Structure prediction request, 475 residues.
Amino acid sequence: MAEGLQHAGEFKIERCELITSSGMLINLKTSIIGLTLFEDISSLTVSGSIVVSDSVNMVSHGPIIGQEYLYLKIKTPGFTAAGEGVIDFSENVFLVHSLAAREKVKNHIQIYSLNFVSQELIKDQRLKVTQSLTASWSDIVKKMLTDNSYLDTKKNVVIEPSAGIKKFVSPNIRPLDVVKLATKQAVSTFKGQSTYLFYETLKGFNFRTLASLYNVTSQLEYTTYVPGTNMDETGYIDVLKDLQTILSYTIISNNDNIVNYRSGMYGSKLIVHDIIGKNYTTDIYNYHDNFKNEHHIVGGVTTEATEYPLVSGLYVNEKNQRVSDFHARTFLMPTSKTGENDAQHNTDINNNPYRRYDPENWVQSRNSQMIQLENGFNINIEVHGNTLINVGDIVTVNLPYTGVVRGDTHYDRFYRGRFLIKTIRHDFNVLADPAQHIMSMNLVKDSLEEQITAPDDNYEPSAKDGAIIKEYQYA
Prediction:
């Protein structure tokens, strides 16, 4: 994979050109001070910034006013598979939307930062969708992205099929707002998964469930090494081993019990009111009971690995109640149905074939798994960069114990194994010698390789009786 790579973090900028609103072409390759790209699994598009040194007053002569096109192509040498090691925005260009931090550094030289985003986000600000859409949610998303009346993207698009035909009347909202609505309501044809995400990587757009992200093998394995040990048998630095070295890491706080209760991650109640039938149904969600019916990162979808919940199933009181047996959040949602279909929309022959608004199929499980994604075991790591890894990929992380080692493993019981990449910040430092690409990543896991065990009678301590003052008397 990395043959021909001279050092970990090596990169080559093959193209970096700016087209101004007046049509002037400015080659920025020799003017770049720093370049940063952002990928985020919770962000609709890729964004970035570029800091340039200007000795010829390009910002005035161009002029550069925040309406420019940025052509960018960056390659990691040695990644030989077709398109594998290339960040290529030389055809689907970025759009510059603002100029910031402009200042003079010395005589006749100024520096400034250009902020840019994918062109689809700029197009989205210009458009509104006011029409009736009849298709599955996945097909509606495809229409918003690829139809020439809307975003008309030419990038790669990965869409996981959703179940049912939906009739949706868009109330004058933007195309990406329709897509965001689809992520919340769509249910996959694969086992009714309701955890859709929509995000852009440096390789294209994705409309997929967590289950589909977990159903892949790990791309790379990251761990820490003692400085000076990343050597091969000949005494030279092992570049691949260096690529997989964690330069620094921070363990983020996780599993906030208060948040987990209040948000409904542990347990919730859903009341669905049928406005046509004038009745209601109640559904209960229990994290521990539902865990085996959901897909998580350790077990994935097709692997046979056993996985366990993030929190203990111990009984917290004498009623034998676990943290998930308290329905601490209540959802109240409407529906309108005839049979199991939508009662609000009919066809020309007066039948009701459309999928209704069915919150019982997605609200509670999606809410819990999204909270797990935010409040699971999170770590930030900094590694040498490459153009192979993207958000939504799976990597293996093995962090060492920081204290006494117990058992037959030297790795932390919680921070080892498969992790999902939530965010990546790519920093390309062209002034370093040699030039260096660093990735700062936020990783998360929502299940464990081993069970958290506890005795059945380990109840929460009860307070002693105290005096109750019924009336305060002034002196």
The longest helix spans residues 363-375. The chain has a mean pLDDT of 90.
